[in-house]
Amino acid sequence: MSGAAAGAAPASPPAPPARADFAAWLAVAAGTIGAFMATLDISIVNSALPTIQGEIGASGTEGTWIATAYLVAEIIMIPLAGWLERLVGLRTFLMIMVSLFTAFSMMCGFSTTLPMMIVGRVGQGFTGGALIPTAMSIIATRLPPHQQPVGIAAFGFTAITGPVFGPVIGGWLAENVSWHYAFFLNLPVGVVLLCLLTFGLPAIRSQLHLLREADWFGIAGIVFFLGGLTVFLEEGEREQWFDSTLIVIMAGVSLTGFVSLMIGQAVAERPVLRLRLLLDRQFGAVIIMAIVVGMALYGTSFIIPQFLTAIAGYNALQSGGVVFLAGIPAALLMLCVPWLLRNIDVRVMVMGGLGLLAFSCWLETDLTAFSAGDSFTHSQLIRGLGQTMAMMFLNQAAVSSVPVEYARDAAGLFSTARNLGGSLALAGISVVQDERMWLHQRRLEEALPANSLTVQDYMNGQAMTLGGMPSAYRSLAGTIQTQALTLTYVDMFWILTVGVIATLPLALLLRPLPKRFKPAEMGH
């Protein structure tokens, strides 16, 4: 959720009633369903990506933009959502976003070319990015304090399980129906959401005068800085970094956006993204931990399907089922979230969550070329528990560490940090995979000297089995490549393990949540 717009602070929304009525719960249902669909669509195409690329005539490199386009647009929209919400009113804003999200989803489903698909994914990301933070606006304004933990638990379930369900649903549709329906399923959901919003949210007058008072330097800075930086990180390794004209341009765009954002911080009375909050010791610690948790969350959800596909020979549905395991403990823990928020020290929960997350990554450092889906069962269950504990309580620590009037700014920064962590993880994975793959291949080759009698006997035996020495050499090359790739994935899990452990001491900087803590905002 974004910071407030520039200019005078708008009037506070009316206090929630003493007890939520049926319309309020309809609105909460709409918010959580919308957030679920938005998070689901982040990863729903990942399993079906090879099939989509083939049908729209995109190469492997071009096809990555199908996923990147959504992420770029979403990370831009999240910090802007709060300002746009106040500009036109929450119900109007959400109905516009839901309608456009549905329309862009249909555009993706009907796509026959890569440009058409990318335009649809950008539209999906931009509108879906609005559905995620505004779900907590509904909870904060439509539910009384004592009922808000229930809304938080429902939203937390969607935020955690959306990316987990995505590969499963996308893989099943690609294998059994058609990848097109990964997008078409948003049509009936969109219609239901529009009905729920119509009956669940009251109409609020727009505040178009905010257009004159807005922090335009900050808004432009967010668009160019976050958009340019995300493309820079996502595509850098693939494009050979500064050897690529695209990466040079994106670096310039990101730098220009950062300068514009800093100008907005200096001259705007109410910057659209209040970066001064990072100077608070607790909030700064939360943001660092959010980035690292985002790296672990998005990094593992990318590495595991890649390993299962490349090493174990799994199809999209099978690898999606392994990723889905993390959603089971997350869903069960959500039933306890209201009680946990009121009774357990935030430092205990965050340190416990980070510890479990690090432990789950460490369990995957003993992978071999014979590992399959069952090798990830325990680690995925532990990861689902750890990431839920860490993210839920870090979010509450973020918004409770700043004055109430800055809660939206804090939630926007927290959400942006988590997504930025995902971008850093994907960029880091590309770099590590290229560098460590080369290193492990060379080391394995060096360990097989051509003059070794053992190696010669092995190769002669393989030649007799496979029908000639050329086939034996190809088999050896494939074995070396498989082993090198396995060792590379192990390196990635080691890096994630060490990274999460390094942030554990930061949890000691957190302050306990207020006894009568009122959940106000939550990031994605």
Describe, in plain words, how this protein is organized in 3D:
The chain has 524 residues and is mainly α. The chain contains 21 helices and no strands. The chain has helices spanning 22-43, 49-56, 60-77, 81-88, 90-109, 114-142, 148-176, 181-184, 186-200, 210-213, 216-235, 245-267, 281-310, 316-324, 327-334, 337-343, 346-363, 377-400, 407-446, 453-466, 469-503. Helix 5 (90-109) packs antiparallel against helix 6 (114-142) and helix 7 (148-176) runs antiparallel to helix 14. The longest helix has 40 residues, at 407-446. It starts with 21 loop residues before the first helix and ends in a 21-residue tail after the last helix.
Helix count, DSSP H or I runs of 4 or more residues: 21
Number of beta strands: 0
- The sequence of SSEs as H and E is HHHHHHHHHHHHHHHHHHHHH
Rounded to the nearest angstrom, the radius of gyration is 24 Å
**CATH third-level topology of the largest domain:** Growth Hormone, Chain: A
Number of domains: 3
The residue-averaged pLDDT reads 83
Structural class: mainly alpha
Uncertain stretches of 5 or more adjacent residues = 1-12, 516-524
- Work out the helicity level: over 70%
What is the fourth-level CATH superfamily of the largest domain? MFS general substrate transporter like domains
Quick one: biggest sheet? none
The CATH architecture of the largest domain can be named as Up-down Bundle
Give structural attributes:
524 residues; disordered C terminus; 3 domains; disordered N terminus; Growth Hormone, Chain: A; mainly alpha
